[in-house]
Amino acid sequence: xxxxxxxxxxxxxxxxxxxxxxxxxxxxxxxxxxxxxxxxxxxxxxxxxxxxxxxxxxxxxxxxxxxxxxxxxxxxxxxxxxxxxxxxxxxxxxxxxxxxxxxxxxxxxxxxxxxxxxxxxxxxxxxxxxxxxxxxxxxxxxxxxxxxxxxxxxxxxxxxxxxxxxxxxxxxxxxxxxxxxxxxxxxxxxxxxxxxxxxxxxxxxxxxxxxxxxxxxxxxxxxxxxxxxxxxxxxxxxxxxxxxxxxxxxxxxxxxxxxxxxxxxxxxxxxxxxxxxxxxxxxxxxxxxxxxxxxxxxxxxxxxxxxxxxxxxxxxxxxxxxxxxxxxxxxxxxxxxxxxxxxxxxx
Amino acid sequence: xxxxxxxxxxxxxxxxxxxxxxxxxxxxxxxxxxxxxxxxxxxxxxxxxxxxxxxxxxxxxxxxxxxxxxxxxxxxxxxxxxxxxxxxxxxxxxxxxxxxxxxxxxxxxxxxxxxxxxxxxxxxxxxxxxxxxxxxxxxxxxxxxxxxxxxxxxxxxxxxxxxxxxxxxxxxxxxxxxxxxxxxxxxxxxxxxxxxxxxxxxxxxxxxxxxxxxxxxxxxxxxxxxxxxxxxxxxxxxxxxxxxxxxxxxxxxxxxxxxxxxxxxxxxxxxxxxxxxxxxxxxxxxxxxxxxxxxxxxxxxxxxxxxxxxxxxxxxxxxxxxxxxxxxxxxxxxxxxxxxxxxxxxx
DNA sequence: CTGAAAGCGCTTACAG
DNA sequence: CTGAAAGCGCTTACAG
Lengths: 347, 347
Description:
GO molecular function, one term (chains A, B): transcription cis-regulatory region binding
Largest sheet of chain A: 6 strands, parallel
Number of helices of chain A: 14
CATH topology of the largest domain in chain A: Rossmann fold
Keywords (chains A, B): DNA-binding, Transcription, Transcription regulation
Pfam family, one (chains A, B): LacI
Oligomer: homodimer
Protein name (chains A, B): LacI family transcriptional regulator
């Protein structure tokens, strides 16, 4: 059963192809009666305008593409959900390109999809700046969490949230903390590292930085040895996945959170579901995705779009993974220590 | 700067459009010298064949669409990752449609994308059978986790895994267990419920069924009251997200896993990252996605594709959320009980 | 308000 | 092995 085309509808409705076309794209040019007649027979025939033909004719594809490093990461799947929903609302379909954290694949995906989309949303691109600019020169591009002058961008400012987290930890008596980050290429991680360093200095905390590599649960777990060696009592992680990994690594060693160690994450997607629930900086992932799509689509509608930078504030959400600093075990001080030996050694 | 078209390349290379076209799509029909000449000038001009025009002309889009109920669910994001990667490998781009667990949106997405894709992968469709068949009659469709005669499908058979889980629990001394499922529309949930019921009967366990509604962390947490009321000592959940929710609900009430209660999940994406790590049935999500794409694409290549059903076995992975049944508290039995009172009440 | 016709950038029988 | 030409299904000035 062949798909009905505009010709068939025109013939059946007794009008020209142009009229059928207008009934769908510019009904205000037609008599209500004509519109109704055309739409009616279209409905009856199951006709839907062919997007491909429309795209070739108008030069507008009605599609956008979202390129991201890893859909399996909750931050990006939440972001993708927000982006896709918003694009759908505005009549656009969404391509997904997963670059597997690779700059090269990102480049290839951009090139391959260019002809089929009206614009791109690049979430946390791993591409270097010149290449991003090259693609942006050919097709409208909005980047998320990358601050490039002259390119539309949505930035989730998690700095204040991380600062608040450091203040929280300082207030709880922690003196030595760590920031566990992703590789240098990540704008977000750099931003968070800076906030932690600055806030730590301001509150007299010593701060060590650890690079976990590709942000994953394993990466978090694997850096626990380093954390303990460094003698810190709290860690702020680049995201919740890494934070959860750190908690798992601590649990493996019999350390409890927050009793023995405090952990802070970021994104706040899985944070409420971990055990214990993570204190985390909310990154408003879905909103970031939706805003990026809006920025892109508004730019398309506008002949000379002003380049906008949209900033979303990420605030701290305090849950159960942060608590008072543990009393230092190796060198107990205070007068009660000698008078009250460890109960476990009593027997 | 206008995008170069086939005409420009033809003129510059001193050949016809047909020759340029062939140089890209069927070079074996041309002299190597001609191919080289054409490709050279194309390269120099920055020419890339316009996919949209090609699609209109050939009727082949070079795209597929993946429709799923919720990208934010780890099962589907993992599946999407596998599908997208495989499609890319075979030269296809992937549209994502998130139906938000809604049959209607699924229907709309199918219709809107139909003209732009060569086929669909429907993961756990919420659509009723007649509508799925309607769409399958127009465009090649492969469904995942839905058993529809005559339609290509990939089924993850988690039945044996759930059976193994029930056997495990029975061996650990549990006598009353629960299956916490999703709504009736889910083929997977029905399959799992059947396996649990059958295995429970075979091993003399009493089995209660609880419907958690839309599978989510909250849904899992919310059904804990019902679980405890029902007097069961273990729960098997439709997926890991719900299982994790159940663990959270138990923790809220001061119950420990697996000490006081055992929990089993399914999918095995987040299972290794929860605390305690979940005993779970591996659903091979990424593989399912990749296989579905292969099935679809192989079908496209084949003039009269044989309808295949591809079955993936899901096996049980035992971790820390399952343990011996707790001794029944209200009616302690055994001779030692009176002789040895609870130590905590001693003081 | 509506229609006839050209054109979007390709592909592909059909000739030669 | 290569070219001229029709056609894919729309949209949109241009007339009327």
